Amino acid sequence: DTGVSQDPRHKITKRGQNVTFRCDPISEHNRLYWYRQTLGQGPEFLTYFQNEAQLEKSRLLSDRFSAERPKGSFSTLEIQRTEQGDSAMYLCASSSGLAGTGNGELFFGEGSRLTVL
Amino acid sequence: GEDVEQSLFLSVREGDSSVINCTYTDSSSTYLYWYKQEPGAGLQLLTYIFSNMDMKQDQRLTVLLNKKDKHLSLRIADTQTGDSAIYFCAESATGGSYIPTFGRGTSLIVHP
Q1: Mean pLDDT in consecutive groups of 10 residues from the start of chain A, 117 residues
Q2: Which residues in chain B are contacts of A98 at CB distance < 8 A?
Q3: Closest CA to A21 of A72, A83, A89, A71
């Protein structure tokens, strides 16, 4: 399977714990995006990488959230001191072109579902 | 996405046409998209339209864009039970660094 893969698919944690999600994009894609989706809502943009550079961050990304893409391939999204409001599906997407343009189709993974108790 | 609005539910009979509507607020939107999300799966791009176009047709899918009213629609002809999914409208604009903003999604239910 050469699609976008995310790990873990499900994570249940207690409030205050740290969690980390991993995303492996399609190998030739240099752009990687993180979105968050809560029940009944559409995906909300969190952050974007071009290669290893983090180029955009949403105001939704509080200082408890950090994302990295150290070698321009896989990416990690870490949430520190989780809160119940962090419960959501965290989606990763990659693209070869600039997202939002005609050749910038986003390819999404299946998501990592976080439940904070 | 507060800038993209969609109705939440649509129910149709198999074989009928489905029309899913979307409105957006950003007048500088350049690309508009329709993504499909099936249960347990990631979002998948169905089609997109550039803002200087009025219509785009792709097999059973027809996208209509009214730029004056900032209204986008997706028509699915001969809707099948396999079309049951959540459909997301998304827009991108130069002011938003072209990063797509998504609507809340319309849940399409197709009855046999």
Answers
A1: 89 98 94 93 93 91 94 95 97 81 80 97
A2: 98
A3: A89
